[in-house]
Write a structure and sequence with these properties.
The protein is 30% helix and 26% strand. By secondary structure, the protein is an alpha/beta fold. Strands 3, 4, 5, 6, 7, 14 and 15 form a 7-stranded mixed sheet that branches. The longest helix has 15 residues, at 141-155.
Length: 336
């Protein structure tokens, strides 16, 4: 079979398409014929050696993929050949709270990932797909979708009438917009480009803020909420935006830490103390969260926002496109 492996921490240039051995299911495993993969910012960090500089190379990259089960090991009954499935970001995190052991099962950053024609995955880590989604759409769910669900619904307990502020127009932010919409919440979204804001408003966001022309976007968010502040910030920027997120959120509100798009740095924690904020990191989520999210996606017929689909031989170009920041929503690689 064909598959990609990362041979050097050189971004897209470190990827090589190779002939790899066909996987054989070990105990408790299933073989998935991968039909599509999607890219996350984490995949770019992995490819550059910024996520885990000690990662043993070469390795099959990417955490997110969807396809069909083609074989299972003896005794596996949870899935069967022909099932349309996606792998959970951490196949070892089935339910309950996270742990170090569960985190170590994350695909594409510790163990082998999904960017190959066939992969062997623990059957307990597989999730059946909503029937209305294509493989390309379903491949966007494991990381970005589950992260947004975990932040807003599982931990955030989002209620009708509340207001969220989400940063940028990548996958997590747009999933957050869609989930907040069917939860009856108001969405304020930020971007550096007016045309992206217009698309986000068409998707269901209530207000948009261009943070290039309105650098005090936190003040604008407070203006849009009558000076009170938003109930929930989906914080994707990291240290470079966290101080403004603390200002944008209401007293007693919630800030979920998800991304580090602006890099690292120091942040003054005093506002979190003085405003009695709940600040929580979100590292994707469990298989149980994935399944709960899929039930809601099926009920509301949500369709993930796919910006562009690349063919299998164009995976390096897809990673470079991700780095450019030009995308609106998710970038997908069609495997076969």
């Amino acid at each position: 079979m064909r598959g990609y492996r990362l041979h050097a921490f050189d971004g897209a240039a470190g990827l090589r398409l190779e002939e790899l051995p066909d996987p054989v299911p070990g105990p408790g495993q299933a073989i998935v014929h991968v039909r599509a993969c999607s890219l996350n910012y984490r995949d770019l960090l992995v490819a550059k050696g910024l996520y885990n500089p000690k990662l043993m190379l070469p390795i099959v990259p990417l955490s997110d993929g969807a396809g069909e089960v083609v074989a299972v090991a003896d005794g596996v009954s949870r899935v069967r050949p022909g099932d349309r499935v996606a792998a959970a970001f951490m196949p070892g995190w089935v339910e309950g709270p996270p742990s170090d052991a569960k985190a170590r099962s994350a695909l594409g950053g510790g163990g082998a990932g999904m960017l190959a024609e066939h992969v062997a995955i623990d059957a307990e880590g597989l999730v059946k797909l909503p029937a209305h989604l294509s493989f390309e759409e379903a491949a966007t769910l494991p990381c970005a979708g589950v992260t947004a669900w975990h932040a807003l619904i599982t931990e955030g307990a989002l209620r009708p009438g509340e207001t969220i502020l989400t940063q940028g127009t990548g996958g997590v932010s747009l999933f957050a917009t869609q989930f907040a919409q069917f939860a009856g919440a108001r969405v304020i979204i930020t971007s550096s480009r007016d045309e992206k804001l217009e698309r986000a408003l068409a998707l269901g966001a209530t207000e948009g803020i261009n943070y290039k022309t309105r650098t005090d976007w936190d003040a604008r968010a407070r203006e849009l909420t009558g000076g009170v502040g938003v109930d929930h910030v989906v914080e994707l920027g990291g240290a470079g935006t966290l101080a403004r997120s603390f200002k944008a959120v209401r007293t007693g509100g919630r800030v979920t830490l998800i991304g580090v798009l602006s890099g690292g740095g120091e942040v003054n924690p005093t506002p979190a103390l003085m405003k009695n904020l709940r600040v929580q990191g979100i590292y994707v989520g469990s298989r149980a969260m994935f399944e709960e999210m899929n039930r809601a996606i099926s009920l509301h017929q949500v369709r993930p926002v796919v910006d562009r689909v690349f063919e299998f031989g164009q995976a390096a170009e897809a990673l470079s496109y991700l780095e450019s920041g030009a995308h609106f929503g998710k970038i997908v690689v069609r495997v076969s």
